[in-house]
Amino acid sequence: MSRARLWLVPLVALALTASVGAQSGSSLRQIGQLRLAILGLSAVPDPASPVVPRNTPSGVRVVVPCSFCLLFVDRPRSSPPSVGVAQAPVRADHAEVTQGQIAELVARLASKDERERQMAAQDLARLGPAARPATDALIRALKDEDQHVCLWAVRALFGLGPEASSSVVPPILQMVHDRSGEAGAVGVPICANEPFSDLEALGAAAVAPSIAAMGGPASDAAYGFLVTLGPSLALSGVTELLDHDARRAEEAAQVLSAWHADAGPAVPALRRAYQAGRIAAVPFLSTIASIGPGAQAAGADVAELVAAHERTLREHAIETLGAIRSPAGVPALMDVLASEGQHNDILKAIQALGQIGPPARAAIPALRRRAEGRDPTYAAAAREALRRIGG
After folding, report:
1. Of 178, 91, 94, 100, which is closest to residue 142 (Cα–Cα)?
2. What CATH number belongs to 99-217?
3. What does pTM read for this prediction?
4. CA pair distance 321, 316, nearest whole angstrom
């Protein structure tokens, strides 16, 4: 922006302030923390932190558009409304909001003017549970072409409270799934990210509908919700999914992987699902490795895969025994150490024994032979393993 244009911005703002002050008898009131982002010759409220002015019994909100900015100002009700007037006053006491006012906000939510729709969605978000009569309209707004209308609709729906979770979480999950597919050069749309930061408004009430969505079209979004809700709220429900069909079981394993050590209590159910064929070997190993030492009970299952014919699976099993520090895996790792198999297999077995530490003392003689051998890679790894084991 040129220096001349930068000087015009405060001048226009001052002129508008004087004009409104002359009509209302007061200077322009600062409303919250209105942020103006100067973009070329225009400025709009920052969508990431918009401020919705609160109407008062004696005045209404007016949006004053100009070539440089949008200014929210207060005007007496006797003044003729300008562009974007909030026709229905939204009071601080939500209990006083009438059905007629809700209906008016719903009507504005369907306006052709995107700024009008944004303001209506913001007003509904501020009402909390009092906005429940607008639930259907807010769900429709999740498909609004304007990202910020969608964002405020999400906040409004979450604000309806835990009692509404069964009706609002499924459409929000579907929206996140649909909008995530719109990702382009600028990344995932903001309204597809926003629900994850607002989930605490529903808390435990969001678990059941998210669990129900697993295995369905919006399971990717449900995965994100469950990971965000965390094991303290969702571990029991996710663990139960391991006893369902293969698709739900593997999706549950992915959630457990994201919780790492906190998913330890689910290990017995993970083993059952693997042994029953509901979880394939690779996702089973990935989940067990992610949990770490808390998954040592699965050591025997993992050790059996050390002898797999497929190289990638075999290496993954060896690494997993190290990750969970499984004493049960020491014999299988010693077999690899004594073989003349794949170079990577032997190297990974030496490293895994070092990770297991003192419980792998039975492997000390074999490790010493490798430490004194001609292969410098094996020798260095074996010396480090011996140091960690204490031999």
Report:
1. 178
2. 1.25.10.10
3. 0.73
4. 9
